[in-house]
Design a protein that fits this description.
Blueprint lengths: L4 H5 L4 H18 L1 H9 L16 E2 L2 H4 L11 E4 L10 E4 L2 H16 L6 E5 L1 H4 L5 H13 L5 E2 L4 H13 L4 E5 L1 H10 L8 E4 L12 H12 L5 E4 L8 E3 L5 E2 L4 E6 L14 E7 L8 E10 L5 E6 L14
Helix pairs in contact: 2-3, 9-10
Length: about 325
Amino acid sequence: MNITAEAIFSIENDEQFKKLALEIFKFQAEHCSVYKEYIHHLHINIEAVSAIEQIPFLPISFFKSHSILSNTNPVEITFSSSGTTGMTQSSHHVTNIKLYEQSYLKAFNQFYGNIEDYCFLALLPSYQQRAGSSLIYMVNDLIEKSKHPKSGYFLYNHDELSQTLEELKSKNQKTVLIGVTYALLDFIEQYEIDFPNLIVMETGGMKGKRKEMVREELHEQLTNGFGIKSIHSEYGMTELLSQAYSLGEGIFNCPSWIKVLIRDTNDPLTLIPNGKTGGINVIDLANINSCCFIATQDLGRINPDQSFEVLGRFDNADIRGCNLLVQ
């Protein structure tokens, strides 16, 4: 396939996106055996697909039962989802890790600017203590590329984290603190931080450690605890190689190589208009070596400006490490 990473990450408008998405669809419909078989069972004529709204989306659950690959290149790394004991994990076999690295670095730059301007702190105990986390891979690289001497992980050492935040505040240092929800709450129960310029980015999920909370209540507690105006969020998952970001209020925006569409909850092959709640479908063109067209188990809606909100999960969906705050 002749589509390059440069073509994916240099998309500037909808027309470029649609053209590339359709080209990749035709390729993956032929070369991703699982996706090809899925399309065959749906009796879809591949050549008749002429708009992204006609593209069939592969249910995300296939990543639990099949190897989703669109080429025969050696697998460089396998990312696996979190989950409770005994639960089948999703596996994303990545044949070109550079695509993932380019994706998160370009997305961070698009939303926040140069990583070297930041100190990057991580409070991700449940992710850090298991193998195969794509989030940890990304955070490791962002910590390294920030080149700040204080960048790093704080597993359970909340006292050190508190001291570090106070020091960074005193130096007016741009700082990102990325954390799993329950760990951020644990921290502010012990320490009160007043750091107005701090970016707190929660990755979602209580991991069974705490009772789930509605987003408004959670974000109110976190903004008060850190002395900030808003809570940022990252929407990503094992099966994707890209993330969307919220700079507050749970409103997410995508980088130019991702697009979210909403499907009917009762008819998964039918898309519904903006403003209505349904299942979240994601086109992630960075998934060029697996499958770019994923039907997630999240519920959401698209706003008139093409931003989107995550409103929960399907009732029968597994509880795991996707960004989820049930409204």
